Amino acid sequence: MAPNPVAQKNHDELLPNYVSTMAVSDPELIEVFDNFAFDEVLQHGNLDKRTRLMVQLAAIIASHAVMEYRVMLGGALNMGVTPVEAKEVLYQAVPYVGIAKVIDFLYLTNEVMRERGIELPLPGQATTTPETRYEKGRAIQAQIISQDRVDRLYAFAPVDEQHIQRYLSANCFGDYLTRTGLDIPTRELLTFSMLVALGGCDAQVKGHVSANLHVGNDRAKLIDVLTQLVPFIGYPRTLNGLRVVDEVVPAPDMKVTA
């Protein structure tokens, strides 16, 4: 048993000369998966290859799927995702996924890059200093989720939680979202992908659906992203993500049920 010719061609383009041991031990599964992930799913949507691979890497990191990450990182680098872009996907995962998970991927990414002769460390992408991170972070936070929303987060947070709001502005946004290497619309797609893949983050997914709309990513693009994540994160989390998208930005032809 083998994947169909289109799936095989797309797989070989992504991973030339790669032979999965699973294709030998579990050929039926690989046939079904590759036909789906490398043919059927790719027929839908308009994501460019680099964006598709970056959102898939983001979701794989959030799923803590280390073995799959190594394979797909190699494929992403083969398809034009730059080392800086790959590292920025990883760095951005820290405030959303946590360093406890991300550290495994950091070691692995460095190993893969060294194997490819990529000199480390890569050029720096930071744009803030300890003195400016809060101010610049709060500004980029307002750009992404709106000034009114940021003001309300601070206004309604109890006194004993104000420090968490400052952490969000200075650390999550100031230390990470202000970095160069990826533009803001792409970073928001990455955040959306990570939150959906994590599961149990519906409130945050809802917030970042709105944030994506605010920075120019429409409903169609969000559905394109979820479509490309299905093979890697499964249906329950994909459907949960779709439900939130439908709540925030319903399709014109959606039927309202009682």
Q: Concise description?
A:
By secondary structure, the chain is mostly helical. The protein has helices at 5-14, 22-25, 27-40, 49-62, 66-78, 83-97, 99-115, 133-145, 147-156, 162-177, 184-198, 202-214, 219-233, 235-248.
Q: What is the C-alpha radius of gyration, as a whole number of Å?
A: 19 Å
Please give the largest β-sheet: none
Name the helix and strand elements from N-terminus to C-terminus, one letter apiece. HHHHHHHHHHHHHH
Question: CA-to-CA gap between the ends?
Answer: 47 Å
- Quickly count the helices: 14
DSSP E strands, number:
0
Q: Assign the structural class, choosing from mainly alpha, mainly beta, alpha/beta, alpha+beta, or little secondary structure.
A: mainly alpha
- Estimate the mean pLDDT confidence: 96
Low-confidence stretches: none
Which strand-content bin applies to the residues?
A: under 5%
The outline comes out as globular
The level of helicity is over 70%
Features of the shown structure:
258 residues; mainly alpha; 14 helices; 0% strand; globular
Report on this structure.
There is one protein chain. The chain has 258 residues and is mostly helical. It has helices at residues 5-14, 22-25, 27-40, 49-62, 66-78, 83-97, 99-115, 133-145, 147-156, 162-177, 184-198, 202-214, 219-233, 235-248. The longest helix has 17 residues, at 99-115. The protein starts with a helix and ends in a 10-residue tail after the last helix.
Give a topology summary.
Layout (H helix, E strand, L loop, with lengths): L4 H10 L7 H4 L1 H14 L8 H14 L3 H13 L4 H15 L1 H17 L17 H13 L1 H10 L5 H16 L6 H15 L3 H13 L4 H15 L1 H14 L10
